[in-house]
Specification:
mainly beta; Phosphorylase Kinase, domain 1; four-stranded antiparallel β-sheet; globular; binds zinc ion
Length: 87
């Protein structure tokens, strides 16, 4: 899977276009909240972050793409984990 073609919202192949024809997501769109990591942030050299599924006191849950296993996953991040990622 070429992750550059992957839409970060629906995780479908959007082709070479920067705009996903399936859900309307556009490459480079910034998160609604400054606490959220932008799409295409890579964690542990394995998880490509997509859209935010939920945000609450427990942290933020992201839809993500597991680049090693080539499959869709969900990642929950607490505020503490996010600080680690940004360091
Ligand atoms: Zn899409």
């Amino acid at each position: 899977m070429n992750t550059e073609r992957l839409c970060m919202v629906c995780l479908e192949d959007k082709g070479d276009s920067t705009l996903c024809s399936l859900c309307g997501w556009e490459e480079g769109k910034v998160p609604e909240s400054p606490l959220q990591l932008p799409p295409r942030t890579i964690l542990n050299n394995q998880y490509l972050l997509g859209r935010v599924l939920g945000q609450g006191g427990f942290g933020i849950t992201y839809l993500a793409w597991d680049m090693k296993l080539d499959r869709e996953i969900c990642i929950g991040s607490t505020a503490m984990e996010l600080r680690k990622v940004r360091r």
